[in-house]
């Protein structure tokens, strides 16, 4: 597979995954041409078409078109099944996926695609295994978010108190921002004593 595009009936691009190196200008041109070509086709027309030196396989699900470009020797029916499997994975994850799910959770849609396809080839045929990997990633992300929230709470509690002040015995006072207690200075110069000001 060369690339996969998801776009709406209005021609709005919702997801794009490129498996070949192309410039942004080329990608935009290809996207524009393909969206116009697919949207201009009648609903009862074949889901396969020859385009440039590639074959285009597409399928419409509700308001979204799933469109893949494959090389001449690749199988169109397998590509159609890949599209269907991806939609099934999205359905399982989001629970009856819709265009808004893709718009507001695009990172999850990309993650699911990356768990399913690698370099334009199917890497995992089992829906169960793909969904399990996604579930584990969600748990990890939730754990990391809780960790961040805990650290943010600790930091906010620390900032509620005013910044500590310090004094150096045998020298003029100074102010440093640290949570350390007493910090020895160079030998013979005294010690720093840090106290929380109230």
UniProtKB/TrEMBL annotation:
InterPro entries: AP1_sigma, AP_complex_ssu, AP_mu_sigma_su, Clathrin_sm-chain_CS, Longin-like_dom_sf. GO terms for biological process: intracellular protein transport. It is found in: Cytoplasmic vesicle membrane; Golgi apparatus; Membrane, Clathrin-coated pit. Keywords: Coated pit, Cytoplasmic vesicle, Golgi apparatus, Membrane, Protein transport, Transport. Transmembrane segments: none annotated. Subunit of clathrin-associated adaptor protein complex 1 that plays a role in protein sorting in the late-Golgi/trans-Golgi network (TGN) and/or endosomes. The AP complexes mediate both the recruitment of clathrin to membranes and the recognition of sorting signals within the cytosolic tails of transmembrane cargo molecules. This is AP-1 complex subunit sigma-2.
């Amino acid at each position: 597979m060369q690339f996969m595009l998801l776009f709406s009936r209005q021609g709005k691009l919702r997801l794009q995954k490129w498996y070949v190196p192309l410039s942004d200008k080329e990608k935009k041109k290809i996207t524009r041409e393909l969206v116009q070509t697919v949207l201009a086709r009648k609903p009862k027309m074949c889901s396969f078409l020859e385009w440039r030196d590639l074959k285009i396989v597409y399928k419409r699900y509700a308001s979204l078109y799933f469109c893949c470009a494959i090389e001449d020797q690749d199988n169109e029916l397998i590509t159609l099944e890949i599209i269907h499997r991806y939609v099934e994975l999205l359905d399982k994850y989001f629970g009856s996926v819709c265009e808004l799910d893709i718009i507001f959770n695009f990172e999850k849609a990309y993650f699911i695609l990356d768990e399913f396809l690698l370099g334009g080839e199917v890497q995992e045929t089992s829906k169960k295994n793909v969904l399990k990997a996604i579930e584990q990633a969600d748990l990890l992300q939730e754990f990391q978010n809780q960790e961040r929230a805990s650290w943010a709470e600790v930091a906010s509690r620390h900032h509620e108190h005013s910044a500590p002040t310090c004094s150096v015995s045998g020298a003029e006072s100074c102010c440093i921002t640290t949570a350390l207690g007493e910090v020895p200075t160079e030998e013979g110069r005294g010690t720093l004593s840090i106290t929380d000001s109230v």
